[in-house]
Amino acid sequence: MKYLKTNPSLCKGIKACEKTCSKAFFKVEDPEKSAIRVKQTDSGFEINVCNQCGECIPICPVKALSRNKQGVVMLDKKLCVGCLMCVGYCPTLSMRTHPDLREPFKCVACGICARACPEKALEIAEK
Amino acid sequence: MDENKVFEYTRYTEGIETMKAAHKVLAEYAFTPSLPQKGYNNRSLHIDLGTLKFTEKKIGEDMKKTFTGGRGFGLKYLWDAIKPTTRWNDPENDIIISPGPICGITQYPGAGKSLVVALSPITNIPIDSNVGAYFGPLLKFSGFDALEIQGKAKADVIVVIDGVKGKVTIETAPQESLDSHVAAEQFTHQYATDEADLRNVSVVSAGAAAAHSLIGCLNFSYYDVRRKVTRLKQAGRGGIGTVFRDKKIKALVVHGPQVKGDMNHPADLGRIQRAGVKLHKEMHDFDDKMCTMRKVGTTNIVSVMDAYDLLPVMNFQYGSHPDTKNIDKTMWVQQFTQGIPDGCWYGCSMACAHGVDEFALRTGPYKGHKVIVDGPEYETAAGCGSNCGIFDPLWVIECNFYCDTYGIDTISFGTITGFIMECWQRGILNAERTGGLDMSWGKGESQLELMHQMARGEGFGLIAGQGVQRMKKIFSDQGWGDYAFLNDIGLEGKGLEQSEYMSKESLAQQGGYYLTNKGPQHDEAWVIFMDMVNNQIPTFEDKAEALYYFPMFRTWFGLNGLCKLPWNDIEPGDNRTKNAPMDAAKVPEHVQNYVDLFSGVTGREITKEEIIKMSERVYQFQRVFDLRMGKGTRKYDQPPYRAMGPVTKEEYESRQERYDKQLMDWMQIDPAGKSTEEKMALHRKYREDRYQKLVDAVYRRRGWTSNGIPTLETLKRNGIDFPEVVATVLPHLSESEVREVRAAYTVDKKEIKNKISKTKDKKPASKKTVKQDKKNKPKIKDKKPAVKKAKPTPKKGKTIKKIPAKKKPAKKVIVKKKTVQKLVKKIKPKAKRTVKKAAAKKPVKKPKKK
């Protein structure tokens, strides 16, 4: 199963991942529209992103969430009714929502952010 | 649950294309489909089945401001449609389905409700019923904030609203089933364009028994994409299904566009999203520790009620039973399929709409079929289960299924059957009188047969379908039992059967049941715990405050198309620590969510206080409506004694310790040496007096006279002092109020005369005669105005004539002698099934209080 592996100890908080992600999917540099989020803590940085656990899949009332061939949890926007139950039920709070957007969004393990991270704190991995 | 599980059900789709080809279109209407803007389409659709005419009505700002939507719109339209003399089976009776401005949002749990309003056959006053499933939202996304159906069709018809094509048709549908689990599946598949479109179709239907009883319900359907089956939710209370079948409607079908998260075009989507995600998260974090709604729905409280002696057992005689464990949540968690989203509208993370899958039926026309049973919910488990002494979950499930598919309200049916079984216990009924049905406690098979008789329109089922109030009279008229006793043990108020909580030890809940607009249901106030268990409202004034706040607050759900459950069946984790107990009971953080939802959708900023004001306008209007239809006064707010205290010796003695202690504590009377009968009489007097004091306090708090009539000041405060409303209360007001009315309103003598003659002529009640001060009084512009505006009164009191008290139609329980004879005659005993009378009188094992 493909997923975005994080190594927060390497993170310096540049947040290139957030900018790249929102730019790639929503054409703006807006951390609120990024699937990956970096937060400063007392001891360093915390990286929050979907780990593809799939707990959201059975929550969806319209079967809009499913795994693709690589095991990545994908949202079918055509089926989605924007109920956001998956957002409230995500155990890592990594399913995102934004007032400009009808449907939620999440990390699809595309790897753009990993390539943008100068500290190599992110990588696409298998588990 | 396995994500790929395929459910095996009996299917009813074979031959549906042939069936559809047999439809004949009787009338067609083209409209422009629209989506709501800020929660409203600002129009409704009126259909007259008698004349086959369609009318679009505009909904203006005044209408929205005064009545909000949902139940408010329903009551307003019903008021305009009927006259004080209208009866439930007159063509002008109006079935109104209205979803409300918030309805249809997908982000917050419980936001897909429709409110159905009609003149009830069982109470002869307006009834409103709150129902889930997709019809209301899809109607709204087709372009209408309400659907009104008046008139009667000549033969069975369906009404199809296609919100994609912009077309409404009235069609014959001769071959499809009347029974809802079949009809919903057949019509859903007929009107969906393909499999993906199935979820965009919803069907409203009743069932075979609705036409043969006064307790018919409506089933609203939705397509469950995971189970691949149509499912049903019920507008249960008050017999709207009976009105539906009286109008010869087989089904209403709506086909809407595919639902997305912003179909209401809300003013502030983000505000709604934030509230929704917050609640989803609470469900995720706390439901397992709180109510376990996601696992067992409302059945979670069966065992709680039993533990507090509040579960109705054997027609509300007792409050607990050793066998309750067989129908409590430990059983339902096994029966309900787990781990599957079970919301009755998108976004309901509370997901209480559980189902028993692949249930093999054991009786009736569908014996052997494998079906999904929607439920049981608490009310059904308690009403059709413990209240009938039935503790076998399989009978409860079967009863639930047939109630739904036949179009019968499970709450009324449970209370009716419990009443019948007690009549059997006491020899008021026997096998000869029931046509051979053994109605002993616990007889699930007999309960089901009673239901099948109701569906076939035969036997004792016909009498049962008349409801408890009429049965009391029928049994006493036949000389089978004493009316006073029957009246004591039959749990109904205003003609509506009581829902399934024991109120004997909670005075506030007695008021919560019987000081209601539509009869004893728990939709308005459920204050048992606050009152009896937690003792948070000890004084009459405290109780009156609770019976003001909660009914008003809970009315708001029905105005907006919301479900009550996500309000307090889940709470923020810190609700109880952050707030004082009485505030915690209001769940302030969730009330704020509702402020955010309303303002977020409509763009109209409101406060928590405004929620109460919005509700009160409609609540007081409904109270006056009851008065207009001949009820709505103090004498109709009285409970049967079983709801207040122990009627029989067995009841008293089963809880003797409690009752004896109350004699000492409440009345300072030493029970020693007194007979049970003497002690019961003391209790009765005390409890009945106490109830009257509560009534006084509640009436004062609600702004009503001592006879339960909203005062002029109350009407003015709520902005509902429309001339017709004022005219309705006028004969009941004080002299000073009448003088005030004379000063403020002009009532033209000639117009009064016209009004009376029009009423007699049975012409539509659209022309109003009481004129009003133009400057000061609110105006309802939409469609036929409720009031005709007049010039300001130039001289105080000069042109006013007191409006004569309307001659109220007789409101006694009308059970025609011929009808009774006919009904009783129809009961033919089955020779082989006759049960000996002696056996019927066998003493019943009484459960002891734990």
List keywords for this structure.
heterodimer, A: 127 residues, alpha+beta, Alpha-Beta Plaits, two-stranded antiparallel sheet, globular, B: 850 residues, Aldehyde Ferredoxin Oxidoreductase,  A, domain 1, seven-stranded mixed beta sheet, six-stranded mixed beta sheet, 19 strands
Question: What is the arithmetic mean of pLDDT of chain B?
Answer: 91
Distance between the termini of chain A: 5 Å
**CATH class membership of chain A:** Alpha Beta
Mean pLDDT of chain A: 97
- Regarding quaternary structure, what we see is heterodimer
List the helices and strands and how they pair.
The complex is a heterodimer of chains A (127) and B (850).
Chain A lengths: L1 E5 L9 H11 L10 E5 L2 E5 L16 E3 L5 E3 L9 H5 L22 H5 L5 E5 L1
Chain B lengths: L15 H6 L3 E6 L12 E6 L4 E6 L2 H7 L3 H11 L13 E4 L15 E6 L6 E6 L3 H8 L4 E4 L6 E6 L4 E6 L7 H12 L9 E5 L12 E7 L4 E7 L4 H7 L2 E7 L13 H18 L6 H4 L5 H6 L21 H7 L19 E6 L9 E5 L3 H8 L7 H14 L3 H16 L5 H4 L9 H13 L3 H5 L3 H10 L5 H7 L2 E2 L2 E2 L9 H8 L13 H6 L6 H21 L4 H4 L6 H4 L2 H4 L3 H15 L5 H21 L20 H6 L1 H12 L8 H27 L9 H6 L5 H7 L5 H10 L4 H13 L9 E3 L14 E3 L26 H10 L10 H4 L10
Parallel strand pairs in B: 2-7, 8-13, 18-19
Antiparallel strand pairs in B: 1-9, 2-3, 4-5, 4-7, 5-6, 8-9, 10-11, 10-13, 11-12, 14-15, 16-17
Helix pairs in contact in B: 2-3, 3-26, 7-25, 11-12, 11-13, 12-15, 19-21, 19-29, 21-26, 21-29, 28-29
Can you give a write-up of this model?
The complex is a heterodimer of chains A (127) and B (850). Chain A has 3 helices and 6 strands, in the order βαββββααβ. With 127 residues, chain A is an alpha+beta fold. Chain A has one domain: Alpha-Beta Plaits. In chain A, the strands form 3 sheets. A two-stranded antiparallel sheet of chain A has the order 1-6. Chain A starts with a strand and ends with a strand. Chain B has 850 residues and is an alpha+beta fold. Chain B has a domain at 17-255: 4-Layer Sandwich (Aldehyde Ferredoxin Oxidoreductase,  A, domain 1). In chain B, 40% of the residues lie in helices and 11% in strands. Chain B contains 35 helices and 19 strands. A 7-stranded mixed β-sheet of chain B has the order 1-9-8-13-10-11-12. In chain B, strand 2 and strand 3 (53-58) form a beta hairpin. In chain B, helix 12 (393-406) packs parallel to helix 15, helix 21 (540-560) crosses helix 26 and helix 28 packs across helix 29. The radius of gyration of chain B is 26 Å and the shape is globular. Chain B starts with 15 loop residues before the first helix and ends in a 10-residue tail after the last helix. At the A-B interface, helix 2 of A face helix 7 of B.
